[in-house]
Amino acid sequence: MTPNRSGLNAAPGHYTTVAIALHWLLALVIVSMFVLGVYMTDLPFSPTRLKLYNWHKWAGISFLLLSVLRLVWRATHRPPALSASISNAMPAWQNRAYHATHHLLYALFFAVPLLGWAYSSAAGFPIVWFGQIALPDLLPADKALAELIKPLHKLSALALMGLAALHVAAALKHQWLDRDGLLLRMLPGRR
Prior knowledge:
By secondary structure, the protein is mostly helical. It is built from 5 helices and 4 strands; from the N terminus they run ββααααββα.
């Protein structure tokens, strides 16, 4: 194994333990928040709905912080290069799609929670993270502005889920059709 600057090890061609943990943790949070978001919006006004909205906001702020951590980690720890066999076998359009998808995913990692925070602020509902830390409003309360932001939050969340599904489909294609071992780079304990 090759040590990196942090002292955490990664086998050649594999992501570091921290990168793998952040990847799967963010994946779990994305799916959980999306399912919760879809479920809670159809509930009638009730204490349960209010509780779920707070959980969704808390998860969103946590997701935003984890996204910052992941971006910092990626900026300071280069991802492993694709093996020559994978790189040579991948058509140019797939390589461009791979990079474009990753860039869009990172953009949405920030856009979705920031739009949610902006919507909550404009709607006049402050965020108190885990019921303990009052976060500043991103915007002043303005119901008309909130109504403009709300669909943007929803559309960006749908786009994030769509890109995540595309990302999963591509990984499974590499694993089961191409059989090139690309997926193994992001699996824990597969070194």
